[in-house]
Amino acid sequence: MKRKIAIVAGGDSSEYQVSLRSAQGLFSFLDHSLYDVWIVVIRGTDWHVELEEGHTLPIDKNVFGFRQGEELVKFDYAYITIHGTPGENGLLEGYLEMMRIPYSTCSPLISAMTFNKFVLNQYLRGYGIRVAESLTLRKGNSISDDDVVERIGLPCFVKPTCGGSSFGTTKVKTREQIQPAIAEALKEADEVMIEAFMQGTEITCGCYKTKKNKVVFPITEVVSKDEFFDYDAKYNGKVDEITPARIPETTAERVRKLTSAIYDLLPCRGIVRIDYIITEGEVLNLLEINTTPGMTATSFIPQQVRAAGLDIKDVLTDIIEDSFN
Predict the structure, then answer these.
(1) Which has the least CB within 10 A, 42, 171, 175, 222?
(2) CA proximity to 316, closest of 109, 81, 97, 107
(3) How confident is residue 238, by pLDDT bands cut at 50, 70 and 90?
(4) What's the pLDDT band for 164 if we cut at 50, 70, 90?
(5) In terms of domains, do 167 and 215 share one?
(6) Is 174 in a helix, a strand, or coil?
């Protein structure tokens, strides 16, 4: 009998539509000869399964399944592709843990920690991993322009501490831009991160590990045609994505080793993607960790899987079956 797989998408953040596109990508990648696959969309308290011809049915949260006539379809596994809350910050993972249903992402604790960029950076800094200087500001508090310039410097980035796809993110070049940038970021989250700008080469490296396989994918170089790798660059083609990255092999090997080490240190589960900036002197600086990376056909991870000579269908099967072995 085939396992019943729920691709869980949607969520409550500005990345809702991005998540739905990732779900369609995953639906096309999964091995339908092994699995019965449905897309489950979550938005607030509305959880429903997508059926053919636009029909939907509500999810019974007591069993994480749905009723189709007299039949109860109960999911065996959840492949989470929500970018943002509640799928990237540990909330959905906590529910699935309580329901004893295996899933594709990190544990609730690690999901929550990697989702909060400031917390993650301070944690990994303690292990000697280089990160940009930063500070955090919560809604209701304030910071002067002088403090930002003195502590972080200009240019800098102002962004939601918890968020993705560069929503609410501003590259700040002048004092006059600081407070408007903070206000913009606070529209996306209750906490803002102000981070020093690092000049260098932006790269990203995917990784996954199971009991059978430990795989670090080829590295992608990210060359944005905008000021930085913003939403327009990510999803509207204003970027060159070069796999493998045009960096020395010695540097590439250091990136692969660091990616693998961070994966084990946290520890992570499923596919993660770690972003870095290589600054002068081939210094590696961590930017962030994506525990539910985009999974459209043109997203970084499928690109890297192809560059590695692997089949994305086999990779996803390896990850799913690892939960049952």
Answers:
(1) 175
(2) 81
(3) low
(4) low
(5) no
(6) coil
